[in-house]
Amino acid sequence: MDATGGIVTVKDSAWFMSYGIKRQPVFKTQKPDDMITWVYGLYSDRPGDFIKKLITECTGNEIVQEWLYHIGVPESEIPTMAAESAVGIPCMMPYTTEFFMPRTDGDFPDVVPEGSVNFAFIGQFVHNPRDPVFTTEKSVRTGMEAAYTLLDIERKVPEVFGSVYDVRNLLQSIPILSDGRKISDMKLPLPDKMKLMEMLKMTEGTEAEDLMREYGLL
Predict the structure, then answer these.
(1) Taking the CA atoms of the chain, what radius of gyration do you get in angstroms?
(2) How many CB atoms are located within 10 Å of the residue 184 CB?
(3) pLDDT by residue (tens digit) across 47-97?
């Protein structure tokens, strides 16, 4: 989950830069005073606004400088801050956008195509019902499915976690996304606050109220 509330997109960035700051620490070995930030640029054919180069030609330090510029760091302080207070690690991901393009059945091959006895497709670009893209789990599950199917191993591939269909997971996520605040403590316009209190009154003594208390909403 992002501490920034999700990915923040800088709309006037020539690179169409976005960034996200996760709940820290991101890594178990991360030092207490370190902060990990994920930054990317969608347009790789345009010079930057502060660094007048294509993002594909930039060093990690230069990408950090461009980000610092867009989050409002004074220009005179950017080079020193980028050099002494940050480490940028560039990574090219040319197929990332493909994950989120619309598609229908048949656009991606099955893990083990019908009739196949000695080859399979694994990774992100295969058809695997219910499995979300862009996850390590999908890559692992497709590899397991390929091995178990082709080697005729009677072992089941772990199911995809069905959180999207479980109201308990949805309820649990609300206070987490609200920094631990209960829904009754959320800052809302008066009309919305009144509607919320009316809704809560309607749930008194019901299983809905029990669930909300169990998952920290009340």
Answers:
(1) 23
(2) 12
(3) 999 999 999 999 999 999 999 999 999 999 999 999 999 999 999 988 887
Element at 202 (helix H, strand E): helix 190-202
Token pair for residue 210? Answer: 């029990």
Name every residue whose Cβ is closer than 8 Å to that of residue 86 and which is 6 or more positions away in sequence. 61, 64
What mean pLDDT, rounded, does the chain reach? 90
d(CA 135, CA 137): 5
Q: What is the pLDDT of residue 2?
A: 60
Contact between 112 and 145 (Cβ < 8 Å): yes
Helices and strands, counts by H and E, the chain: 6, 3
**What whole-number distance in Å separates Cα of residue 136 and Cα of residue 85?**
31
Round to whole Å and give the CA distance between 185 and 109: 49
Structure-derived torsion over alpha carbons of residues 78, 79, 80, 83, reported in degrees to the nearest 10: 120
- Sorted by where each starts, the structural domains of the chain and their CATH numbers stand as 8-84 (3.30.9.80), 102-150 (no CATH), 166-214 (no CATH)
* DSSP for residue 10: -
Give the span between the Cα atoms of 93 and 134, in whole angstroms.
Answer: 12
Tell if the pTM clears 0.70, that is, is over it. Answer: no
User: In angstroms, rounded to a whole number, what is the distance separating the alpha carbons of residues 87 and 92?
Assistant: 17
